[in-house]
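Changelog note: in this version the structure field was regenerated for every chain. One regenerated record is shown below for reference.
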Amino acid sequence: MKEKRVAVLLRNGHCIAGVFTSSGLFATTLPRKSCQEAIRAVKGGSFVRSDSKEDLRILNAVYDIAEGIEVPSLDKINLDLSEMTEKQRRVVKATLSIPRGETATYGEVARKAGLPGAARFVGNVMATNRLYPLVPCHRVISSSGIGGYGLGIEKKIELLRREGAFAD
């Protein structure tokens, strides 16, 4: 098992945390009201604390994405997908291909991942996404509406609006 470390970024009165391994970013979260809450959200309470410039650069990019700011260098962020199955990794990679300001249905993501007919599976992967908002699960919607979101439908709509997917 890879050694994990946790980094924390406090910005504009909100805190985000990320868990990192030697392979890259393992988990992150949207901004929270406290750093303790952010660390709990990524299950990072028992990990060594990191203040590396690279970890903080990545968390700054995560914060920008959460604020709806376009981040051009996402391909330079290594993601640790090692604890996912091959099918889950395919879904994550298909989700990463959804452009900012656009959406795709669970079924469309399943097809892109080479898993036609697996919309429900895609929904389960999105529900357990530990890399949001980098892996933009908020961009995956139901064919009959907005679909679900762990932080509430209002938060999903807010993120999509910030990216320009919905007109105000």
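Spot check on this record: The radius of gyration is 15 Å. Strands lie at 5-11, 14-21, 24-28, 48-50, 104-105, 140-141.
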